[in-house]
Design goal:
Layout (H helix, E strand, L loop, with lengths): L11 E4 L9 H10 L4 E7 L11 H12 L4 E7 L7 H7 L3 E5 L6 H10 L3 E6 L17 E5 L14 H11 L5 E5 L7 H6 L4 E4 L1 H4 L4 H14 L2
Parallel strand pairs: 1-8, 2-3, 3-4, 4-5, 5-6, 6-7, 7-8
Helix pairs in contact: 1-2, 2-3
The chain binds D-xylitol-5-phosphate (DX5) and zinc ion.
């Protein structure tokens, strides 16, 4: 259940459909999966925790069969206050991984265990200004940690360079079984250093869907990530 453990150590680019065409999300997801994407990243925003609104569980329920029919997974990034209210909805919608921000979860152990009890992989997310100290204990209950390399809310923002040392420190802090994901401003010029710093799952929105040929661009980014030692 959830995303298989052996995938957490693979260097994977996760296309973020935030920058896709919302009138044809299924096709835009299928196109990058057919080009080799194993995991699609879905950004859920509530207009409270972050200053933008996007989509919710019904859209995940529509995308899940598209991904699952192609042996791909859905990684759902919740940028919402009080995510505990929605764990059942996203589990029932077919999410394979659900990640929650430490900034939104006072009872983070219960939230992460609750995600896993519902059959999903559990991700723990930190904003750029949140110290790694905040997750030293909580990470014991997570399957992966996601470091935001922009302030969440919008695609197309510039990578915050201080994220590189944070990735290195996170990798040193985390148990080897815990995956390390990075999200925000990932493109041809930023991916090599992020992978070298220890990131394994690279979320890329505008770098994929802003290209004329998203499938070809996905392949280029994925090859680039996999070339880094
Ligand atoms: C930002 C989202 C990201 C977003 C990244 O709040 O969490 O997943 O899609 O977009 P890019 O890759 O354009 O920075
Ligand atoms: Zn995201």
């Amino acid at each position: 259940m959830g995303i298989p453990q052996d995938m957490f150590s693979q260097k994977l680019v996760l296309p973020s459909i935030l920058s896709a065409d919302f009138s044809r999300l299924g096709d835009d997801a299928a196109c990058v999966i057919d080009a080799g994407a194993k995991i699609i990243h879905v950004d859920v925003m509530d207009g409270h925790f972050v200053p933008n609104l996007t989509i919710g569980a019904p859209v995940v329920a529509s995308l899940a069969p598209v991904a699952h029919a192609r042996d791909a997974y859905l990684d759902v990034h919740l940028m919402i206050d009080n995510p505990d209210r929605f764990l059942d909805d996203f589990a029932n919608a077919g999410a394979d991984a659900l990640s929650v921000h430490i900034e939104t979860c006072p009872h983070i152990q219960r939230t992460l265990v609750g995600i896993k009890e519902r059959g999903m992989s559990a991700g723990l997310v930190l904003n750029p200004g949140t110290s790694l100290n905040a997750i030293e204990e909580a990470a014991l209950f997570a399957d992966f940690v996601l470091l935001m390399s922009v302030n969440p809310g919008f695609g197309g923002q510039e990578f915050i360079p201080e994220s590189l040392s944070k990735l290195r420190r996170a990798r040193a802090l985390l148990s080897p079984r815990v995956g390390l994901q990075v999200d925000g401003g990932m493109a041809m010029d930023t991916i090599p250093a992020a992978v070298a710093a220890g990131a394994r799952w690279i979320v890329a929105g505008s770098a994929v869907y802003g290209a004329d040929d998203p499938a070809a661009q996905f392949r280029r980014l994925q090859e680039l990530a996999q070339e880094i030692a």
